[in-house]
Design goal:
Blueprint: H1 2-8, H2 21-28, H3 32-58, E1 85-88, H4 91-102, H5 106-114, H6 119-125, E2 128-131, H7 136-158
Parallel strand pairs: 1-2
Helix pairs in contact: 4-5
């Protein structure tokens, strides 16, 4: 937060010391240079924290899943992971879910989505895809199959096969 306050001003810090997300969103999605300045602060910090957490988690689990919503936009993450899993849904469902979660209007959500990698680019980066639209049973079956795959890949790697 100190780096964000220094770069953008104290107006971007909420009274509780957290980021004023609405104010930052308004600036970042209106001015590409502001978005790049914000990313220059956040991405290195996120990388360091994620790598430390993954290293610790790997000591206790057969494999680690990193949740990186902007993986395609964030540069060289693909070179840092063994596989890329994309959780996909239609644009209409994506808009509905973002509206419900963030209480934003449709135009604001579309503006955000337009600045992200396209659905096609995300799918092209994927080794595996889970479609998460409505069928909870199909979703569960796909998650179980991927867990089995990832467990077997991790076991092969531990044995020196992959």
């Amino acid at each position: 937060m100190d780096a964000i306050a220094e770069e953008f001003g104290r107006d971007f810090v909420a009274p509780d010391g957290a980021l004023d997300r609405a104010r930052m969103r308004a600036v970042a999605f209106e001015a590409p240079t502001a978005k790049r300045r914000l990313e220059a602060i956040l991405h290195p910090l996120i990388r360091v924290a994620t790598e430390a957490e993954a290293k610790q988690a790997a000591q206790h689990a057969p494999y680690v899943v990193l949740v990186i919503p902007l993986l395609v936009e964030a540069g060289n993450w693909k070179q840092r992971v063994d596989r890329v899993l994309v959780v996909d849904c239609s644009a209409a469902i994506q808009i509905e879910r973002v509206q419900r979660r963030s209480n934003l209007d449709v135009d604001a959500v579309r503006k955000i989505i337009e600045q992200q990698a396209t659905r096609q680019a995300r799918l092209a980066a994927a080794d595996d895809v889970i479609v998460n639209e409505s069928d909870a049973q199909a979703l569960s079956r796909r998650v179980v199959r991927l867990h089995d795959l990832y467990s077997s890949l991790a076991a092969a790697r531990r044995l020196g096969g992959v």
